[in-house]
């Protein structure tokens, strides 16, 4: 059996399957200017008016009421700007307050009190919410994916490096893997996805005289349970993954196999066969 360097390169095909989720908790960006009805978080529109929301405004879906979603727009400013807007607009930011007519030149303070917060008669400030029909959501807005998302799929590992002497083996593993993916985890690599994955599957292990201390005279293949942990980095369609794992034969098949339960290593390189949307961002602020 040949010996190679500690880490070896092998082909790894990974197929990711996205989980189906409702829109609640997801982020969207308006494709066009659109008039939206203001409401409470429970979808009550009594006493509220419709407002013209700006193109590219970003919102989070927070509730579902009948055939509508209730959404909250991201703030048009940071904490300091919000406080300044509240002080400046006190007494003029009721729930029916309209945005100034010139939306293009309106300030972030105007937008904060028109789209983000309203003030009641007692002087208390409240979050503003708007309602959008479920059927109109994907027509009027484009989804921005969450920074964190689940990732599941299949990993095929055709080669492994085993033991302190880095024995190169052709043992094949097919594992179901699952974990989570983070988009733009590091600011130095803003367009990459990082997936931390855990897998369990079946490995075909070759036993012979060299890895069983001559217990096995004639080479043969045996099935083993394979556990693995991996980190996959994806840039555009290129995927590079580092995996470690442990293979375990059933007791009657061990036959002195020296790698029973011991760590193997591998580096995977592959190409995604699915196109994915642009990386999402953490919820922050709307543009001014």
Describe the 3D structure.
The protein has 288 residues and is mainly beta. It folds into two domains: 138 residues; 118 residues, no CATH class. The chain has three helices and 19 strands. It is elongated and about 90 Å long. The relative contact order is 0.19.
Largest sheet: 10 strands, mixed
Determine the strand fraction and express it as a percent band.
Answer: over 45%
Assign a percent range to the helix content.
under 10%
Radius of gyration: 28 Å
Structural class: mainly beta
Order of helices and strands: EEEEEEEHHEEEHEEEEEEEEE
Number of helices: 3
Mean pLDDT across all amino acids: 78
Low-confidence stretches: 1-21, 98-105, 272-281
Question: Domains counted in the coordinates: how many?
Answer: 2
Please report the distance between the alpha carbons of the first and last residues: 64 Å
Total number of β-strand segments? 19
Q: Give the overall shape, derived from the CA principal axes.
A: elongated
Name its key features.
288 residues, mainly beta, 2 domains, 7-stranded antiparallel β-sheet, 19 strands, disordered N terminus
Task: Present the secondary structure layout.
Layout: E1 9-11, E2 13-17, E3 27-30, E4 34-39, E5 50-53, E6 58-65, E7 68-73, H1 79-89, H2 108-116, E8 117-119, E9 125-127, E10 129-133, H3 137-140, E11 141-144, E12 148-157, E13 160-162, E14 167-169, E15 172-183, E16 192-207, E17 220-235, E18 238-249, E19 263-271
Parallel strand pairs: 1-19
Antiparallel strand pairs: 2-12, 3-6, 3-11, 4-5, 4-10, 6-7, 7-10, 8-9, 12-15, 13-14, 13-19, 15-16, 16-17, 17-18, 18-19
């Amino acid at each position: 059996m040949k010996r190679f360097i500690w880490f070896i390169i092998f082909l790894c095909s990974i197929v990711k399957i996205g989980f189906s989720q409702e829109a609640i908790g997801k982020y969207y960006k308006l494709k066009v200017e659109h008039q939206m009805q203001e409401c409470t978080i429970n979808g009550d529109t009594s006493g509220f008016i419709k407002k013209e929301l700006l193109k590219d405004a970003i919102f989070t879906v927070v509730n579902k009421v009948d055939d509508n979603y209730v959404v909250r727009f991201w703030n048009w400013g940071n904490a300091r700007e919000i406080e300044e807007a509240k002080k400046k607009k006190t007494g003029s930011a009721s729930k029916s307050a309209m945005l100034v007519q010139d939306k293009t030149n309106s300030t972030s303070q105007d937008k904060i009190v028109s789209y983000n917060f309203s003030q009641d008669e007692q002087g208390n400030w409240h979050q503003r919410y708007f309602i959008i029909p479920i059927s109109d959501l994907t027509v009027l807005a484009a989804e921005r994916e969450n920074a964190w998302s689940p990732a599941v799929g299949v990993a095929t590992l055709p080669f492994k490096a085993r033991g302190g002497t880095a024995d190169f083996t052709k043992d094949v593993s097919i594992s179901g893997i699952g974990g989570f993916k983070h988009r733009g985890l590091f600011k130095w690599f803003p367009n990459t996805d990082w997936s931390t994955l855990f897998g369990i599957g079946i490995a075909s292990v070759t036993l012979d005289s060299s890895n069983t201390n001559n217990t096995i005279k004639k080479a043969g293949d045996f099935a083993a349970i394979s556990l693995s942990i991996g980190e996959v980095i994806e840039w555009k369609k290129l995927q590079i993954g580092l995996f470690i794992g442990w293979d375990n034969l059933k007791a009657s098949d061990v036959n002195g196999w020296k790698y029973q339960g011991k760590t193997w290593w591998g580096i995977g390189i592959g190409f995604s066969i699915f196109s994915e949307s642009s990386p999402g961002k953490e919820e922050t602020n709307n543009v001014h």
